[in-house]
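Problem statement: downstream parser choked on a complex file, so we are re-checking the raw output for the adenosine-5'-diphosphate run. The parser issue turned out to be on our end (a line-ending mismatch), but while we're here, posting the original submission so the record is complete.
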Amino acid sequence: MDDPSTDMTSLQIARRLLGEALPRHWQLYIGSLICMIGVAGFTAALAYSTKLIVNEVFVAGSATAAYQVAALLVVVSIGKSGFEYANVVIATKFTRSVAAFYQKATFRAMVAKAVPYFAGKHAAKHMAEVMLFGRAAGLVVTTVLNKLSTDVLTLIGLVAVMIYTDPLMSISIAVLFPLIFGLVALLTRRIKAVAAEEIELQGRIQAVGAEAFEGIKTVKSYGLEAKSKSKFAAAVNALENRMLGIAKMTSLTIPLMEFLGGLAIGLFILYASWQTGQGNRSAGDFTAFITAFLLAYQPAERVSQNWVLIQKSLVQVGQMYGLFASAQEDAQTGTASLEGRASALRFEGVSFRYNAEAVALHDVSFETKPGERIAVVGRSGAGKTTLIDLVQRFYAPTKGVISIGGQDIAEVTPDALRDAIALISQDVFLFDGTIRNNMRDGKPDATDDEIAVAAERAMVTAFAKDMPDGLDSEIGPNGASLSGGQKQRVGIGRAMIKNAKIYIYDEATSALDGANERAIMQATVDSAKDSTILFVTHRPSTLQWVDRVLLLDHGRVVAFETHETLMETNAIYRALFNLNTSDEERA
Ligand SMILES: Nc1ncnc2c1ncn2[C@@H]1O[C@H](COP(=O)(O)OP(=O)(O)O)[C@@H](O)[C@H]1O
Ligand SMILES: [Mg+2]
């Protein structure tokens, strides 16, 4: 887990969870409460009616009593099973509702997390957390409020019957309780230790599987099927072993309770034979007592087992609350807007490091004029991507200030920043759906006319008109049915619709041929006259469109000059430029 786990205790976590879930799902809770009382009442009645059977039917030999008792038993059984059925249905709905609520809440919290949270961890692992945190919350709420409460109520009813029929024997059995508590506490401690690991292992399976499917062409062309299979098998086996370990621990409560129960029954038989010898008790009393005791067995066993399971799930719910808290921290950004600000971008002494060892940007300072077009160039690893990630506030600078139109971007709202910037990246990401809907993501309230204009400028129309449904053609997950160049054009169209102050083209035309690139560059500079445009590029052809070039090397600004000046004065630039005339190396 890279999110900070909360330091709440199990009790605090349970209190918070129940406090949140109860008001939200109170109807379901009332329904299950009625069912619980019904089940407990009828179970106790069943135990007590055995006293009537023995004393009235067998000992007194009354025929009328036999009919009455038989009828009573049928009614009690029907009542008990009816409530049990309703209880299961309501409990299932309850669990699903709570789980669904927390799955949505976890997803919301994760999306709110800052970019570094997602680096180095496969998307499938995040999804596993979303699903499992929600499931753990649903399990805790309904196990505590329904299963555990039903069993505890049932136990109380049965214990009442036991105490009523034989107080002395009941107290002697109570001596066993500390023993049970001690052993259950031991199991609880061990299971809490493996709770976080369960989610990690579930996530690993999903990540290994998703990786193979996403990279299926690579897997097949390099013959990596066997490697994928064994990686997947190892992940599945690890989880299976872990789950078996957990099941072994939780199920240890079964033999434990059976043993203690057997012990109690043995003692009881000795005690009963002694008491009947004395003529103190009726046979019916003993039957009622032993029936209540036997009926108490299963609920008691389930209580201890559910207790251990709840402890495990509470650890996971605690992780979920940790995520909520850290997402809230991440979301706490400024209140300023960029309304009316110019498009000038300014870096003042900006440094950034990803980790202790590697400094990615050193003391970077530069300022663009509003509406200026800039090429950001430099060797692979020079810091170009880092620089544009900082502009979008994906990371915060370690030192220094970045401002747009004089406003420090650290102080603006996420909405304001998002509206001010349009990014077009080399590996453009498109959503499953139509071309039109993907373009509309740039500006949700765009009219069809606006989309048509942008589609024309970004040369999307040029290929979409040959597709069966034009702009309304489905393009598959991440635009699977489009070529790389077509995807880039849809991505450029999506950005053009947006009325941004700053456009960032990160190798955005790398998959376009020369003619297409020229047309799109022309449209780009024509349609965004007041905006600052940053072209991160290795292509010499892009340089004719820009006013100045920002040359980076090893995380430092080497020069910020016109192309002509740099060609005359800068050896690094010339080397870069000549190197890349023939070789389109990508960053
Ligand atoms: N997520 C990351 N974690 C650690 N180091 C990184 C990360 N991303 C980039 N770097 C390092 O930061 C430096 C600049 O990288 P980058 O900005 O991607 O360069 P460019 O885009 O110019 O090729 C490189 O040395 C790179 O190894
Ligand atoms: Mg890069």
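For whoever reads this later: Residues 119, 354-355, 358, 360, 378, 380-386, 587 surround adenosine-5'-diphosphate (ligand 1) (CB under 6 Å).
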